[in-house]
Structures are given as C-alpha cells and as structure tokens.
C-alpha cells in the first residue's frame, strides 16, 4: 500500500512545517493590532436582582 509509505510525505511535511515556523510565523507576529484594547475603568456597576413573578 503506497499511501502508508512515509518516505516522501514526511520530508514534505517537515519542510512545510519549517518554512511556516521560521519564515511565515515571525512575519505574521510582527504586525501590530489595528485596534489595541483600551484600559477600562475598574468601577463596579450596581446590579439589581431579577424579580421573579412567582416568588
């Protein structure tokens, strides 16, 4: 069964993984997010409990 022979496919997978890890990933991680998160105030809002009609 030729599909079980890992000889050509393992090398292709290894080269693909190395190309992604060493060239594409650092380029993608160097981008700055266009919408950086804002510092929200830590003031707690007052919440009221729900009034159930059957209680």
Question: Can you tell me about this structure?
Answer:
- The chain has 55 residues and is mainly alpha-helical.
- It contains one helix and no strands.
- The longest helix is centred in the N-terminal third of the chain and has 23 residues, at 7-29.
- The chain is elongated.
- The termini are far apart.
Short synopsis of the structure:
This protein is mostly helical and 55 residues long. It has one helix at residues 7-29. Keywords: ATP synthesis, CF(0), Hydrogen ion transport, Ion transport, Membrane, Mitochondrion, Transmembrane, Transmembrane helix, Transport.
Share of helix, binned: 40-55%
Arithmetic mean of pLDDT: 80
Alpha-carbon Rg, integer: 27 Å
- Approximately what portion of the residues adopt beta-strand conformation? under 5%
Uncertain spans, ≥5 residues at pLDDT below 50? none
The count of β-strands is 0
* H-E order: H
Distance between the termini: 70 Å
Number of helices: 1
Global shape: elongated
Largest sheet: none
Decide which structural class fits the backbone: mainly alpha
